[in-house]
Design a protein that fits this description.
two-stranded antiparallel ribbon; elongated; 49% helix; mainly alpha
Amino acid sequence: MSWRQVDCHINNLYNTTFWMMVLRGGMSNTEAENELKGTVSSDKNEILFKRFGINYNNEEEIYKKGSVVYRQYQLEEAKTKAELGFDPKTPQGAGDEEGALPQENVSKTQQEKLRKLRRKAQVVVDHVDIIKDEFWERRPWILSGKPGKLPMDA
């Protein structure tokens, strides 16, 4: 998911620059495309700022980060990947249903409690950075598949 957000950011920066060059800069689509060929992010940021007075860093997060949808439980203090039990050699959720837990370690009663807890969780649409570790460290239930604690007001 993190690499997908990077892709969203790269595409939005390109599109923002392209359309400013066309709509406000008077260039044709082909001219703008040719000028942007081979550019890097800093080049596009410079074009936006020098030609159009736009500081891309001030654009709304929804455009730079896209939309992230997840179940929200009570946020936790940041934990390291090792503390979360993250094993980079094992694909997360490989072969499992979404949010499923290993069945051999969980009783039917516990499975039902987990299902109820998941249903009570708030589904959040947010525009946050999921590239850096902090997002994942504060929401360990996403990587573990085990629901967290619900906030007191849930």
